[in-house]
Amino acid sequence: MGKCIAYLAAAVVFTGLGALVAGLAVWFTVPEVAQKFTSESRKAQCVLESPAAVSGTIMFVQSSERAPVDITGNITGLSQGKHGFHIHAFGVSGADCKAAQGHYNPFGSNHSAPNATERHVGDLGNIVAGEDSVAYVEILDHSVTLFGWYSVLGRAVVVHAGEDDLGLGGDSGSLATGNAGGRVACCTIFAVID
Ligand SMILES: *[C@@H]1O[C@H](CO)[C@@H](O)[C@H](O)[C@H]1NC(C)=O
Ligand SMILES: *[C@@H]1O[C@H](CO)[C@@H](O)[C@H](O)[C@H]1NC(C)=O
Ligand SMILES: *[C@@H]1O[C@H](CO)[C@@H](O)[C@H](O)[C@H]1NC(C)=O
Ligand SMILES: [Cu+2]
Ligand SMILES: [Zn+2]
């Protein structure tokens, strides 16, 4: 009886080892599986179009799938002060910023601040334009990604006329859009050579 259990245990262990070896073999030889774990870096660009006179180019750089995204660029032609700065759900053609629809929100969260634990993926807060009408954008974000199912590639950056209240406005608009007002510029984020 004891011998029987020992044989059974040995069989289970060997089957387990076999499955492990087979799994590792697939991991290292099937490209679609292995690819998920490479440390490829990605870069993307967005060239603002505007129904007003706002312009600028925004760069996105992510050194690997797990790394935060560096979002940088200088935006000119803005009124002095804060302007809501978001990634919206869809790409746009030209300055038809309405086509971008709402904030990119794949997890059904309320609108909030970039440093909030629960926020829209697209919630990048405000950018600030100085007296020179220029906003120097320099954001390091851990929610936005250029990889995988929730990649922002093909979606739109939207710059607003007014300030984003970061979800603190106390009304339903605040929890949806931050009451940031009209859309003064937008563009579609596309991948570029790294
Ligand atoms: C943005 O402006 C800063 C400060 O003038 C400058 O150093 C930087 O090169 C500019 N970046 C781009 C992408 O034009
Ligand atoms: C959004 O905020 C409202 C009001 O505070 C709350 O009732 C609701 O549960 C929140 N929704 C989510 C998804 O957190
Ligand atoms: C987010 O940043 C603001 C101002 O920069 C700060 O007042 C607030 O406490 C921060 N919130 C979290 C959750 O870190
Ligand atoms: Cu927006
Ligand atoms: Zn939002």
TrEMBL record:
It catalyses: 2 superoxide + 2 H(+) = H2O2 + O2. Residues 54-189 form the Superoxide dismutase copper/zinc binding domain. The keyword Membrane applies. Pfam families: Sod_Cu. Its EC number is 1.15.1.1. It is an enzyme of class 1 (oxidoreductase). Its cofactor is Cu cation; Zn(2+). GO terms for molecular function: copper ion binding; superoxide dismutase activity. The keyword Transmembrane helix applies. Keywords: Antioxidant, Copper, Disulfide bond, Membrane, Metal-binding, Oxidoreductase, Transmembrane, Transmembrane helix, Zinc. It comes from the Eukaryota. The chain crosses the membrane at residues 7-30. Binds 1 copper ion per subunit. Belongs to the Cu-Zn superoxide dismutase family. Destroys radicals which are normally produced within the cells and which are toxic to biological systems. This is Superoxide dismutase [Cu-Zn]. It comes from Penaeus japonicus (Kuruma prawn). The lineage of its organism: Eukaryota, Metazoa, Ecdysozoa, Arthropoda, Crustacea. The gene is SOD-5.
